[in-house]
Amino acid sequence: MAKAKTDSHVATNKQLEEFYRQMVFIRHFEEKTNFAYRQGKVGGYMHVYIGMEATAIGWNAALKKNWDYVMAAYRDHPQPLLMGSDPVAVMAEIMGRSGGLSRGKGGSMHIYDIPNNFFGGWGIVGGHTALATGLAFATKYRGEDRVTVCYLGDGAANAGVFFECLNMASLWDLPVIFVIENNEFAMGTRLEYHAADKELWKRGLPFDIESERVDGMDVSQVYADASRIVDRVRKTSRPAVVEVMNYRFEGHGAADNDRRLYRTREEEEAAMKRDPLPKLEALLLAKNVMTKEKMEAIDEESRAQVDEIYQKADASPFPDLGEVYEHVYTDIVPEKGH
Ligand SMILES: Cc1ncc(C[n+]2csc(CCOP(=O)(O)OP(=O)(O)O)c2C)c(N)n1
């Protein structure tokens, strides 16, 4: 059952201001990646996080920096940015350049930053849940009190491997949180066409895992729920399943140009009324945390910063052809490998 909300994890005004900076930055960053894609500067697939920003921001703030672990699927630009990765190296990876976090050989879907505890960036739907379960096992085995957050989509919540992971995580008391981001679609397939039980939070119940459904669009509420759950998992070393309700504003990937095949304009417009950015702006104004002028200044500053990031990433060369067989199976990329 969904839990009653507590107010013991309320974001401070300083945190709300930081959330705003992060959200504006991620929005501009993702818009720039879309621009890069349209310029033909991004090879392969690319999936942006526009509209879903409150989820990654709230959850990131609930984690212990430089300690807890995070793993994501292929919608993986915001998590490393929030965890301290060099944004130029993130953008360069998306553009397939040697200055990228995976040396330009992973691309948008395979961003990876071990020094900052971000473990990818995975393209096989649902497959990474097994890796995240393994990470949580490793932390427990070493006697650390790290929490592992594993983001997965609503589509991935149907993958068989996920059910195996729920079983093992519960059986072995692993401190892993499966954050199912229910953005209502798996590519062009609407939730009701792919999930027999649309209440995805219930996935954990047969495995005796505490499970609930929470909001993913109001960053202050996301933070409150996330920090409550993270604290519990750290204390109990029991896994959690959390269905976070959000919505992707763009197509599935940058190449999805025909959203009208699976959703109407009216439906999109209604969902966009839940946009986390104006929602946060309204909160900051209501709480007198920030003026409209200050927000505009942050917006401008962030836009300029992203322009510079893009220029720097674009100046990074493509990987050397001689490296093509390196780091495929056996080579370990050095810790500060970029
Ligand atoms: C095992 C596997 N099957 C199919 C695909 C093709 N595929 C790529 S994305 C996707 C949809 C996943 O949707 P969801 O998990 O809801 O994530 P979202 O895109 O909404 O973030 C599918 C089926 C894949 N990458 N891997």
Tally of domains: 1
CATH class: Alpha Beta
What integer is the average pLDDT?
95
Sheet of most strands: 5 strands, parallel
Give me the count of strands: 7
Any low-confidence stretches, pLDDT <50, length ≥5?
none
Amount of helix: 40-55%
Overall CATH architecture? 3-Layer(aba) Sandwich
Strand composition percent: 5-15%
Task: Provide the gyration radius in Å.
Answer: 19 Å
Descriptive notes:
- This protein has 338 residues and is α/β, with parallel strands linked by helices.
- The chain has a single domain (13-312), classed as Thiamin diphosphate (ThDP)-binding fold, Pyr/PP domains (Rossmann fold).
- Helix content is 42%, strand content 9%.
- The chain is built from eleven helices and seven strands.
- A five-stranded parallel beta sheet has the order 1-2-3-7-6, sandwiched between helices. The chain has a two-stranded antiparallel ribbon with strand order 4-5.
- Strand 6 (210-215), helix 8 and strand 7 form a beta-alpha-beta unit.
- Helix 1 packs across helix 2.
- The longest helix has 26 residues, at 13-38.
- The protein is globular and about 50 Å long.
- The model has no long low-confidence stretch (mean pLDDT 95).
- Thiamine diphosphate binds next to strand 4.
- Residues 75, 123-125, 153-156, 183, 185-187, 252 line the site of thiamine diphosphate.
